[in-house]
Amino acid sequence: MICETTKKGVDCLFMSKQGCSYKDNTCKPVVEQCTGCEKAQEFAGGTYCAAYPEPALKWKTGKCNFATHIKREAKKEKVINALKASKRKAKGR
Fold this sequence. Notes:
- It is a single chain.
- The model has no long low-confidence stretch (mean pLDDT 80).
- With 93 residues, the chain is of the alpha+beta class.
- The relative contact order is 0.14.
- The strands form two sheets. It has a two-stranded antiparallel ribbon.
- 17% of the residues lie in helices and 13% in strands.
- The protein has one domain (15-91).
């Protein structure tokens, strides 16, 4: 449904016919770590996250998984074929 409280005009999962169903009936503003994120949007009441209602909880345990301004590096491990490795070792290479 369309938000009627803090993010007016935005489709929100927490909106119901009775109003906002998130705790305290409102979304929480973004925290300092969200600076530069594409999901942080400016509204009349302040800056709020478009993906999550309480960004401080996402940053509490580490990096936010919705953050677009953080580069994540994938660890690439070299795959070793065990059969070939044992043959190489037997030959003395």
